[in-house]
Design goal:
alpha+beta, 2 domains, eleven-stranded antiparallel beta sheet, four-stranded antiparallel beta sheet, 14 helices, 19 strands, 26% strand, disordered N terminus, disordered C terminus, binds 2-acetamido-2-deoxy-beta-D-glucopyranose, lipid transport, receptor, ubl conjugation, transport
């Protein structure tokens, strides 16, 4: 694969690292030069390098799904036992490969777009086929009493649940549970409701809404920051500051990322803004990346982190907002009792974790991180992980839920949205290796031929052009600002 032009910017960033080989003095010079290029090319405006990368994501993104299979269905149905769960997966789909749609540049330094949803199955990255069957929660039966709390309605619903032979659990294929199936209970209702449902139904051909982001042309520090989502600055799902649409969409951040920054981003999957904090440096294929992780505090209970008070909307499961780790997003899911958590209830309170059996949370597999190239602010690799759960509640009038003893959060599946291997990586390596060779050659040729000072400086020291063309100038300026100046003079 040929290295396309949109790699140039990132290559530029790497030059800094390459130059650093020649000594600490090189870094400020390199940063300054790169800084100028970044300021020109990192903004999201038609024609810049960043624009290409922004329009169509530079690397392949996958969603790996693990579906929770219930090992003891008869005990759960007949005795209201704790479900014993076993995760089945990964079932991998390639996502986010379509270009952004309805891209419109506005006069106020913003650009709006929609992100089309698409998922295509990747059999060779999956444990089985989409036809694999799992025993899982019956979404329609469990959601019904939450949508219709009235006794009379529940008595009616109960008759249709029974006549359609639905129970609290169901057998479904992976494809059905993810992308939709016709539910027998909903299908038997005499009122007109869409009988198709699935955790991500409908997906293909939909978008998660209109985004309007700052291009950075007016203020580079606002590059990619969301100005509005669905034409609003607030979501209207939460109270107070929890409702704010903060930061970017996570795909990139304003350039010159610092370790002490809190990187805010909005995720429509979890219906909220969240944030990452610096965790450490990662060298991936020779490139230094800053790893930002979503910290445990982001999911802590309001008793621990006061600011989280407005994310506590369910007093039952959270035991009056003293428990951590699950987010009630029913306000954003048409009142369906959907709860989001980290996979395997990572960072959640023990009580929530122990309402089901078979989960084993660990940070390495279940946390969310973004690896960001700090100079450009591009997220080069990431793993966004979340678990989708439904709240199961006893309902006296619905026989299928009679055995449920206490309300609890029932995991359905978890997903890892991940870049497998950033496609540009090979180019990075090649380009950076070429630069290294070039620098070595120039170094040698300088030594061999000798140079007068006037020849050593680039013609216009204040302007920056692509490193590949003016590299000699850069190198020499750097050398002259360092120890070797004595030798040359
Ligand atoms: C970007 O600019 C090119 C050439 O000027 C033009 O053909 C293209 O339609 C523009 N794209 C958008 C989204 O405005
Ligand atoms: C994009 O805009 C066109 C025309 O304005 C509209 O028909 C289309 O539905 C929009 N696309 C999306 C994904 O909303
Ligand atoms: C979604 O679209 C992709 C690409 O067209 C296709 O491969 C996939 O099967 C579709 N998924 C569903 C659930 O229809
Ligand atoms: C899955 O099941 C459908 C319908 O039963 C069948 O047409 C399809 O070939 C199956 N796919 C695989 C991969 O087994
Ligand atoms: C799921 O399938 C298994 C095996 O075919 C069967 O024993 C079980 O009763 C089914 N469960 C439900 C909820 O339909
Ligand atoms: C959004 O919410 C914040 C925090 O509560 C508030 O200060 C701001 O005025 C709200 N903005 C709009 C447009 O409603
Ligand atoms: C949004 O950002 C403001 C600071 O700019 C912060 O106070 C608030 O808590 C953030 N909200 C969310 C939901 O992250
Ligand atoms: C929550 O608080 C209410 C009143 O403040 C109390 O009646 C109830 O028992 C509390 N529930 C839990 C689970 O602590």
């Amino acid at each position: 694969m040929a290295c396309s032009r949109n790699l140039g910017l990132l290559t530029g960033a790497i030059i800094g690292a390459v130059l650093a080989i020649f000594g600490g003095v090189l870094i400020p010079v390199g940063d300054n030069l790169i800084g100028k290029a970044i300021k020109k090319e990192a903004v999201i405006a038609n024609g810049t390098i960043a624009y290409q990368n922004w329009l169509v994501p530079g690397s392949s993104v996958y969603r790996e799904f693990w579906i929770f299979h219930v090992l003891n269905p008869s005990e759960v149905l007949d005795e209201g036992a704790r479900p014993k769960l076993e995760q089945r997966g990964p079932y991998t789909y390639r996502v986010r490969y379509l270009p952004k749609e309805n891209v419109t540049e506005h006069d106020d330094g913003t650009i709006s777009y929609m992100l089309p949803n698409v998922a295509s199955f990747e059999p060779e990255m999956s444990v089985g086929t989409e036809n694999d069957t799992v025993t899982c929660l019956n979404l329609a039966v469990v959601a019904a009493p939450a949508l219709y709390p009235g006794t009379f309605m529940q008595i009616l619903l109960n008759t249709w649940i029974k006549s359609s032979k639905s129970t609290m659990l169901q057998n479904r294929t992976v494809k059905e549970i993810l992308w939709g199936y016709t539910d027998p209970f909903l299908n038997s209702l005499p009122i007109s409701v869409n009988p198709v449902l699935g955790v991500f139904y409908p997906y293909n051909g939909t978008t998660d809404g209109l985004y309007r982001v700052y291009t950075g042309t007016e203020d580079i520090t606002k590059t990619a920051i969301i100005e509005s989502y669905k034409n609003k600055r607030n979501l209207s799902y939460w109270e107070g500051h929890c409702d704010m649409v903060n930061g970017t969409d996570g795909a990139s951040f304003p350039p010159f990322v610092k370790k002490n920054q809190v990187l805010r981003f909005f995720s429509s999957d979890i219906c909220r803004s969240i944030y990452g904090v610096f965790q450490g440096k990662k060298i991936v294929k020779g490139i230094t990346l800053y790893r930002f992780t979503v910290p445990r505090e982001a999911f802590a209970s309001p008793t621990e982190v006061g600011d989280n008070y407005c994310f506590c909307t369910d007093r039952v499961i959270s035991q009056n907002c003293t428990l951590a780790g699950v987010l009630d997003i029913s306000a954003c899911k048409a009142k369906r009792p959907v709860y989001i958590s980290l996979p395997h209830f990572l960072h959640a309170s023990e009580v929530i974790l122990h309402d089901v059996e078979g989960l084993s949370p660990n940070e390495k597999e279940h946390e969310t991180f973004l690896d960001i190239e700090p100079t450009t602010g591009f997220t080069l690799q990431f793993a966004k992980r979340l678990q989708v759960n439904l709240l199961v509640k006893p309902a006296a009038k619905i026989d299928a839920l009679k055995k449920v003893k206490n309300p609890y959060v029932f995991p359905i599946l978890w997903l890892n949205e991940v870049t497998k291997d950033f496609r540009v990586s090979q180019c990075f390596i090649e380009t950076s290796a070429k630069q290294r060779v070039k620098i070595q050659r120039q170094k040698i040729s300088l030594m061999v031929r000798g140079f007068t000072l006037s020849q050593l400086y680039p013609k216009e020291p204040g302007t920056y052009s692509p490193p590949s063309q003016h590299h000699a100038g850069t190198f020499v300026r750097i050398v002259l600002s360092g120890k070797k100046r004595d030798a040359l003079q």
